[in-house]
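re: ur question from earlier - yeah i can do the single chain one, its not a big deal. heres the input i used so u can compare w yours
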Amino acid sequence: MKPLVCLLMGALAWAGDARYARLGEFRGQVEVQLGAAEAWVAAERNLPLVEGAWLRTARDARVEIELDGGGVWRLGPDSLGEISDYTRLSTGQHITLLTLDHGRAYFTGGAVGNDSLILAVPGAQVGLQHAAKVRLDVEPDASRISVLEGPVRFSSPAAELDLVSGQTARVEPTDPARFALDRDFAAADQDAWSGERDRALAGATSALNVAERYGLADLDASGEWVHTEETGPVWKPRVGGAWAPFQNGRWVWYASLGFTWISSDAWGWLPYHHGRWAHSAELGWVWMPGGSQVFKPGEVYWLRGAKFVGWGALAPGEAYPPQPDGAPPQQYLDAYTTYAAFTAGASIIDPAGFTGRPKEPLKVAAFCAALPSPPLVAARLDAQRPMLAAGGTRVLPLLAGVAYQGAIDQEPVPQPAPEAPPAPIEPSALAIADVLPDQPDDGGAAAEPYSLLVMIQRAARKPRVAAAVKPKTSPTTVSARTTTTPAPAPAAPSPAPRPPVVRRWPPGEYPLYQKALADSADPKQQLVDLEVWRQRYPTTEHEADRIYLYIGAFNRFAPPPLDKLVEFAAPLVARDPHTWFDDSDTGRAQALAVLYMVTASAPRLPAASPSGLRTCHKAAHELLAYLPEFFDNRARPSGISQQLWEKARADMESVANQTLALRSAPSADKR
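and the output i got, formated as tokens:
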């Protein structure tokens, strides 16, 4: 396979895994910084907040943030907070970590099922597995955690215990050994405000018709639910007769979503990011909740002219982008279309004050799938922030010097060795080469696959030193890192090795695997072998090995059927890469090779392959998460220079980032 030339196009990260919080009620001067490379901007209602967002309040200011799980986080005056970790794992588990750097914050809510919900302050953290209300206060010399209602799990380097309603824990970050517990606490100025907001959000009747858990109270206050025989419950806003959706607000560019609608309507959260709008002569415009809980930037059709764009709501169930026959969208009507000025490279599209509305739009504009993205400024990738007072806050394995260590120093209980399965044929390092591109011949590749190939082969022969990485485990095994900046960072112990993966081969299945592996030199015959295996054993513990062989077979065709390659890899990519193969050197190299191959396929997928592009985006995300672990410097083979080792990682990161910048799959003839 020839090297893939990645094109920077409109970015649309795989939205199925992404989570977004809502900036709701606020008062006074509140500012938001969505990422390290972003400028501080004034808060606006209904602004989507991403993982890594910072929020700060001035004197007499306050702000409320609604989380997708129903929890509510509020910052009081003179405060700085961060949404440190806001992740949905491939297992469906939600990881939420909110950090208060200084000031005062309130939280109301709790984790659901196996979700993890942690609040961090300098020197300590609390986990909320059940519904609770907590007040956090961070002063220059101390941090306080006060439990207003419910139980929480408190953890600091000195202690780990359950706190209940009415208790306060106090820690001094500069002296982690100090810890104080009070059985009462004094009322604060903002307690009444937080309590009033809790009551305003509780008991929203819209929860009976909507699966999402945030923005519900606004629907109750600004509209009514209407039940129809055809569509079931729909929500009708209280608006004027000439009103249409997606008129009051503006589009703002998000690297993970594309152009995202920020509504000026006070209730404009759920109706613009979940479900779709429908229009009828009897009811006018109504919002129909969707079956999917995936956050959408705003489902509209786009009409693009030379210096302007237009947009309007897509109908429920309507497929988009436009069909080849050129038929307009179902709900297209000039009166329902909103227009704004647009130039290439713009990151904000605001219809306010636009006077260039075309008289006959379809003569001077055409429907398009999406708008081009703003240019990527490379310097943004190097942007950094000052360290929070709470230290580096992410959900990590339990680390020394961070939380209560009582259980860490205990000797592990010896476990009986599992019964060894029949030894299968181990794919050689050369087999790993089969899923990587050939050496480039046009000099245009973003990576040097030959160098990557050599290093993967050699790395698979060297024992790996485990690196501390973001886990995909239950909330009982994670802890927020809350070390203070002045204190030296403790050495992170290597996580305990994962238990060996024991997969048994049924007597009739193992020969099929051997046959497919033996025919790897003939991809056509190997595909025949794999199909026989799949028909006889549609469900198998060795699905990852079978998909790996499929990818290798597809890649040896000229040209390779990349849509098939990505299609067969999709079930594997949807899972945690650590579960694909065993924890051997070869298994880790195979996982890396699969992630790289799927990620690098994105620029040459057929144009009509949105599901394939989503799979490539997921692989790119997993590849970026897996690279620090695989390329840990302690695992560098002695025969590989530091420069080449770092270049291999950088090349793979480049391929992943360029894949994430693809908004739609280009034509298959772009090689």
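The two ends are 11 Å apart (CA to CA). not sure if urs matches, ping me
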